[in-house]
Structures are given as C-alpha cells and as structure tokens.
Design goal:
The protein has 361 residues and is α+β, with helices and mostly antiparallel strands. 22% of the residues lie in helices and 40% in strands.
C-alpha cells in the first residue's frame, strides 16, 4: 500500500482491497426520509376492552378464570347463584304457562263460537286473555334479555330443571385476555358489581403525545416505526387517528398507531417511541453517511481511479437515517467507495498526506 505524492490517492493491491473489505457502488438518486420522534405508550384497543359486570345480585359459586387467562367468546367465566334471577325466570315461566292455558281456552271458545254453542262475549273474553298474557310474557322476556340472556336461552327455559332457576353464568363477550379480576368464591355481589376486565390483545394501540410545535408535521396515514425496548422487535404501522382536541393537563394532542400483537410482545403500559415519516424527498445523489469522511476539514468520498482510490471533495446537503445528500462533487452513475472509506482515509492520514485530516463526517 502506498500513496502518490501531492495527491489524495491510495494505491492498493487486489489482496489489500479484499483484506480491508473495501467495496464500491454506483452513486444514484434516493429518497431522503425525514422523521419526527414522538414519545408514547402501549395501550389496549379501547374498542376491544370490556368490563364484565353481573346484572343481578347474588353469591359467586364458581370462578373459572383468573388474571392472564385467555377466554373465548361465549365461554363461562364465573357462576352466580341469584334469588333475583330465580324470581325473573319464575315470572317468565308463570307468564308462559298462563299463555298456554289462555290459548287452549281461546281455541276451545273459538270452536264453540263457530258452532254457536257459546256466547260471543265468552269468545271475546278468551281472545282478550290471550292478548293480555302475551304482553305479560313479553315483559318477563324483556327483563331476562336485560340480564343478558338471548332468545334461544329464553325459549328453552320451560325445558330446564328447577335447579337452574338461580344459576347465572357470566359469559365472555368476545375472544380476549383477562386483565383484571374482582371476584372470589362466596362473595356477595350487587347487581352492578364488576367481576372482570378483559381485552382483546391481538392488536394494540400506540398512543403518541404530539406537542404543539410538532402538530403541523403529523397527520393520519403517515408511516411510523415503533420501538418499545430491548428484546422487542421494531414494528411498522401507520397513524390511524389524530385527536381533534388537546389534553388540558399536558397541552399535547394524542395520535394513534394500531399494531398487530402476535405473540403478545407489545404489552399495554409499556413506554414506546415512534419515528414518524413526515417527508420523503427524492435527491439526485444519496450515499451512506459512513461513505463520507472528513479530510482537511472538508467532506469527501473515495472514488476508484486509474491509480487507486482518490479522495473526492464533495458538498453535502440534507441527511437522515444514516444517509447523506451529495449536492456537488459526485454525480449519479459514478462509482464510489461504499464500504471501507474510513480505512482509506486512515491510510492517507498515516502517510501525512492529509495533515489537517479530521474525524469521519
């Protein structure tokens, strides 16, 4: 290895080039990405978060789920024995039975009326009784619906055993994970007691805090790279929501990124940082920052020449994410050293050819 006199050129053999790991590439246009770093935190999807309450007073007799358990839609999470529920079911069954009797009487009176055996008034009274008991049954049915029982369950009540009258099953409304538990076996419960909180963590929200001076650069649809911490891979997403109002206490505006959470790596409550792509500008020549070195206090790149590798002084423009715009000194289509520029500069400095050589740019 040697350097030509009075020129910033380093001559290397093929073996030396390989040993130093020097690689070249062709200068070309590129996209300069300008980003904004925003602090935030991971949160559960508020649209897939549920507080499970009992709608009747009673006593907890079974608790089948605890913190961290996964639940499937319709799965029984707990069982409550409730006298109030028994009263509601009994009222429905009584109304159902009265309707059955009223219909039987109406059918009989209609048959007699058709044969002119009974009076019209008896026929009308029977029809009125059917209408009234239908209203009673509907009212009792609506009360059971308000307690969370579906049509199919209510329809099968007459076929159920008497022991089931007091049984109230707490069911999961959707597939989720238990994130809070407030129930123990034997506990007396009110008709609005919260038993569990569940969240669907298959996707999470990244809630970002946007300060006033950054607001002009943040909008829905922008790309975002989210970093949570060691051991957790970065994730890419897009801003799905920017709040129309600012928080009174912090004077910041909340922006949201939705991330898939396969494997549960992104845990609600963790701090996060998001790099938001605010601008993508195409420049004529874009090179890695490591390809630009400082020689005699001026930025330069190394280009292959007839005699080796020559330090070419350049002018630099904007930079972002490890890339630098070259505004003059290197044009698209020219080869340059993309790997090993620091080693070439070190050779020049060692030979004293760049007496004012500085640190890598």
């Amino acid at each position: 290895m040697h350097e030509q006199e009075n020129e910033h050129i380093v001559e290397l053999s093929a073996e030396q080039i390989a040993e130093l790991g020097i690689e070249t590439a062709i200068a070309q246009a590129g996209s300069l990405r300008r980003t904004l770093s925003l602090p935030g935190r991971i949160a559960a999807d508020a649209d897939r978060l549920a507080h499970i309450v009992t709608r009747v007073a009673g006593v907890a007799t079974e608790v089948r789920k605890t913190l961290g358990d996964n639940v499937a839609q319709g799965e029984v999470m707990a069982v409550v024995e409730s006298r109030e529920l028994a009263d509601g079911k009994a009222a429905y069954l009584a109304a159902w039975r009265r309707l059955e009797l009223a219909r039987a009487r109406f059918d009989r009176e209609q048959s007699l009326w058709d044969k002119r055996i009974s009076s019209e008034q008896e026929f009308l009274d029977a029809r009125q009784a059917v209408a009234e008991t239908q209203i009673e049954l509907q009212a009792a049915e609506q009360k059971l619906h308000a307690l969370g029982f579906g049509d199919e369950y209510v329809r099968t009540l007459p076929e159920q055993s008497d022991q089931s009258l007091t049984r109230y099953e707490i069911l999961a409304p959707f597939d989720a994970t238990v994130i809070a538990k407030h129930i123990t076996i034997g506990e007396a419960l009110k008709d609005d007691s919260e038993l569990f909180a569940i969240a669907d963590l298959s996707a999470v929200w990244v809630q970002l805090d946007v300060h006033q001076h950054d607001l002009p650069y943040v909008e829905g649809g922008q790309e975002a790279i989210v970093t949570v911490g060691p051991g957790v891979p970065q994730a890419a997403g897009r801003i799905s929501y920017v709040a129309p109002i600012a928080a009174e206490d912090t004077r910041t505006v909340q922006a949201r990124v939705v991330l898939p959470n396969t494997g549960g790596r992104y845990r609600p409550g963790l701090f996060a940082t998001a790099e938001i792509l605010t601008e993508a500008v195409t420049v004529d020549v874009l090179v890695p920052r490591s390809a630009v070195q400082s020689l005699e206090g001026r930025p330069c790149v190394f280009v292959p020449s007839e005699h080796g590798f020559e330090a070419r002084f350049v002018s630099i423009g904007r930079s972002s994410h490890g890339a630098v715009e070259i505004t003059s000194g290197l044009v698209a289509g020219e080869p340059f050293t993309i790997q090993g520029a620091f080693e070439l500069k070190a050779a020049i400095v060692a030979a004293g050819l760049g007496s004012h050589a500085g640190h890598g740019h």
